[in-house]
Amino acid sequence: MEPHRWLPLEANPDVTNQFLKQLGIHPDWQFVDVYGMEPELLSMVPRPVCAVLLLFPITEKYETFRTEEEERIKAKGQDVKSSVYFMKQTINNACGTIGLIHAIANNRDKMNFETNSSLKKFLEDSLSMTPEERAKYLETYEAIRVTHESSAHEGQTESSSSSLSSPPSSSQPQVSHSRTKASPLCHSASLSWAKRNHVGPAKATSPSIRLRRWRPLIRLPSVGLHSVAPSIDEKVDLHFIALVNVGGHLYELDGRKPFPINHGETSDDSFLEDAIEVCKKFMERDPEELRFNAIALSAA
């Protein structure tokens, strides 16, 4: 039987916020760009922050680490609170939506849902389910699938004349998850407010990279200055995960993994900085990669 496959979603606050609105969530919380790792760039993010979505490349190095991490946790164990909402991913290209569900589900006490919210119903129905059952339920939940498809068509596009990084090497594992191309998140970066609307990719000319705008560029067949919708069958190698604070612990929620990953203690005040430390570890494992992007769910 052919696996379920959706159109890939873009890591773009405009897209994700419209998606949440269509799912019946009042805009008290909104996704915003995270421009870099330095304190002055993190200070641009409105507080409090209750979740971070990280977009990163699936590479051979990462897959090796993922296997080793799973074996280590299975051997040593970890503490995961029963209140953590976690679901598996069984739909190709659905990692963006699953990341959004993880972000909202683990902060549902903070959210204001509209009366007829399709996401509220999905969460209520699936609360007592296992991670595998939640994944199967999503496969049949038309309201979220239709909203996902609509949002996937509304992503930011770029002219074919733009400078985009090369497509992934054929030697890298091809995993259909997300349809975005990210400018680099830098360990040392600067940004002026005048440059906030620049969407060109930063150029890595030295170890200290100037960050222009840390937002992905979609790589689609172009028609003039706009782009046609991506092929639903096209293989891409970028993936979303959610980072959330549940009960004072920072959890990484990835539907490709068998369980949540507990990254240690955190607090409402330190969550963004703690989540970015986790993002740094992803980057350090693939120092030659530039395709990293993050958006934060912040109080509006």
TrEMBL record:
What is any one GO biological process for this UniProt entry? protein deubiquitination
Q: What is its EC number?
A: 3.4.19.12
Q: Which positions does the site annotation Transition state stabilizer cover? A: Q89
Annotated Pfam families: Peptidase_C12
Q: Where is this region: Disordered?
A: 148-181
Per the record, the major location class is cytoplasm
How it assembles, according to the record, is: Preferentially binds diubiquitin; the interaction does not hydrolyze diubiquitin but, in vitro, inhibits the hydrolyzing activity on other substrates.
The protein's name is Ubiquitin carboxyl-terminal hydrolase
Q: Which organism is it from?
A: Cairina moschata (Muscovy duck)
